[in-house]
Specification:
With 116 residues, the chain is mainly beta. Strand 7 and strand 8 form a beta hairpin.
């Protein structure tokens, strides 16, 4: 069983920045795909960014150029740097990992609120 623990959410003003972290209980190299999703009230969960173990990174159009994902393989942690935040970015952000043998894992989510 894998645990994904998110942190770093909070309240920020429009134009501000936040850095989310996702700590995995297993090496990141175990996962074929990892990423971040978000879900706003009354909306479906949507992809923010996903990346392959040794492959490309895909960003949602709405965040490309403002959000950057990075990996710290020594700490088994994925970070999401979010800049130029907008009220439309307000949502619960979830870390996601896919293991080809075991399936999908999700974190518990961290709330991001962008408001003045």
């Amino acid at each position: 069983q894998v645990q994904l623990v998110e942190s770093g959410g909070g309240l920020v003003q429009p134009g501000g920045s936040l850095r989310l972290s996702c700590a995995a209980s297993r090496s990141l190299f175990n996962f074929e795909t990892m990423g971040w999703y978000r879900q706003a009230p009354g909306s479906q969960r949507e992809l923010v960014v996903s990346f392959k173990r040794y492959g490309s990174t895909q960003y949602a159009d709405s965040v490309r150029g403002r959000f950057t994902v990075s990996r710290d393989t020594a700490q088994n942690t994925v970070h999401l740097q979010m800049n130029s935040l907008k009220p439309a970015d307000t949502a619960v952000y979830y870390c996601y990992a896919h293991d080809t043998r075991e399936g999908d894992y999700w974190g518990q989510g961290t709330q991001v609120t962008v408001s003045s």
